[in-house]
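Example record used in the benchmark description.
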Amino acid sequence: MAHFDTEYQRLEASYSDSPPGEENLLVHVPEGSKSPWHHIENLDLFFQRISFKNGFTCMLLGEIFELVQLVFVVAFTVFLANCVDYDILFANKFVNHTDSSKVTLPDAFLPVDVCSARIRDNVFVIFILIISGVFWLHRLVKFIYNICCYWEIRSFYINALKMSMTDLPYFTWQEVQARIIEIQKEHQICIHKKELTELDIYHRILRFKNYMVAMVNKSLLPVRFRLPLLGDTVFYTRGLKYNFELIFFWGPGSLFENEWSLKPEYKRGGNRLELADRLSSRILWIGIANLLLCPVILIWQILYAFFSYTEVIKREPGSLGARCWSLYGRFYLRHFNELDHELMSRLSKGYKASSKYMNCFMSPLLTVVAKNVAFFAGSILAVLIALTIYDEDVLAVEHVLSSITLLGICITVCRSFIPDKHMVFCPEQLLKVILAHIHYMPDHWQGNAHRYETRDEFAQLFQYKAVFILEELLSPVITPFILIFCLRRKSLEIIDFFRNFTVDVVGVGDTCSFAQMDVRQHGHPAWMSAGKTEASIYQQAEDGKTELSLMHFAITNPHWQPPRESTHFISLLKEKVHREAAAGQQGIIAENPAFTSTHSLQSDSEPRSLIANLLMGPPSLASLHLGREGSINPVSIGVSEGASALRSLSPVSTSQHLRGTMTGSGTDARTISSGSSAWEGQLSSMVLSEYASTEMSIHALYMHESAPEYYDESSESVNEDMEAARTFPRSSTFPTTSHQAGAAQQSGSQRHYGRTSDPVSGSFRAQRTPRMPMGGWSEENQMSRHHDPVPEEGSEDELPPHIHKV
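Model output (structure tokens):
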């Protein structure tokens, strides 16, 4: 096929984040008055290093130990393989001693000349040493460059930001960011704008990560697979992520010509097929390179995992049964414009609730087997320990010490399958607590938290540590095949994605348009954006990513002024919250008498008790309480309760309570769109951070609870086939189950997430549409929104660049 008409379309500029008249501004500063930080060329890298905020000494030691660690792993492995006589070590060969009959450890070491001869005769070892030496020299050059950059960052903190290295750990990122915005007026670190905004700084730090989050959100990256025995499986490792970034962003022949600019040829649509072929060829060669380097990388992964985890497994055998957030889960749950420390803080707060939820699904059969195996292993272990206490010579018997170690590991593993006898099975409540922190969850999980299908899908985000280690070990083998056979087929879709979802922001450069968090261009009608979004099905961010990211960024950065459309969205949301809160606020405490006893368990000595008191103050928050570990204990969080909770955080309902809670508090609390800094003079940074986290948790709960009702209200006049489709989830990340797919086939008609207007009332109705692949096209069925087709090959010179100024 020579040409395809894709649904991707160029996005128009939604707003300008520069003051009027500064769109093409270039600030000129006389030579004599320039500061050392005037016009920093690579602001992306500069801001990224500032955001680490660990201090010069920590970064220096980290770089040094990385170099030493690489040398140690390679040298120690070569020594163990070529310079140790294992026959002596295992007592298979006797050593003649004149002074003592004991065998010492140096007796097992081969002489230097024998060791060096064995290394020279081994071609594979020589090859490994050459590869390691080249890589180490590359790291050494990078280390020298990074040290110079770190020294510059240290000088910037001390002289420009007026922060000493000793006090740096006690500053929050918001305080550092505020000082950077302030010194822009004096030092002009960016000469293209007079003033920097919070969003400008986030865009530069997270430019490439926002693209990755968007591609995961639109299911563009090949990380989900259906395997014959395992079913739906997610495979996304650090090695695969490294190759994605190498291909897209910074590798030779990548799509970006520098840190901040997409190559001009990728901004035009006329040669999209040629660019797709070029990208496909490049992916093929990188996949072949991964295949050739697979043995070296695999050996390194095995050695690094062995040196890293063996001692931990020996000391804590149950650590492999612990869980961690998967790499895919961190990208799926990440907001646009969310820094690493903000994401990890949010996921860490939901860790305990997630662990409790996964522990609810214990198999009774496995529990019975584990109890009996633990009993038998414990009995044998008890006898061996008793004999060892009676006479320590028992340890000299062959395999006794190994038996004690293996029996201890067996008992620990068995205990991980035995549930706590005091545990209460309440998956729905736990899932709500998890949602309050992770903010994203497919709709079909609601009401199905007790099902094993929901548990298996959540396990893709919250996996075993053992599974994480196993995936990293298999990554060098599987990654080349994913690149060659899966990613290459998506070359055209990737080219279209970067062309259509890239915008040029003044003073920032090319950024992902999804990171603008514009509900008009990327909002979803099922997430309170109906009537405010003009996005087609391919332009909509899934799972409410645009709306939730907008709320998160506005709460985290209260001084940031959103664009007009976003401000309108927030205002309408607040209006709806207040309206529903007024209807559902009465009688909540009477309906939830358990709240009083729950609050009495809170310790006033803890820092979070202040937030708990703030939330407890208005009676509308009777259904929500912040526990000792920062988790939200929902008694019954519904739409009206969530609305009441949000209303209690508004200035009107909280100002009087704050006056009674904090000494000298006479100002109103900040809201999601307020730029007031009143609280910053009354509360510490830690309390502000906890308040913002709690506020965002309540918003996430409210939006998830009210989204289905909001969708039902906006689609009352839809026909019966639309009613049959309401059970469909809005998430393409987690496909529907078999019974849900059957319901979809019975509906028989095409559904859209478009926008239709009522000529009488002027209201909008959100319609659902079936999922299509990212960048896909439909030849038989036409969408409700028609766009101009992309011109054919050869018309490149007639096209303006598919990129625009914001």
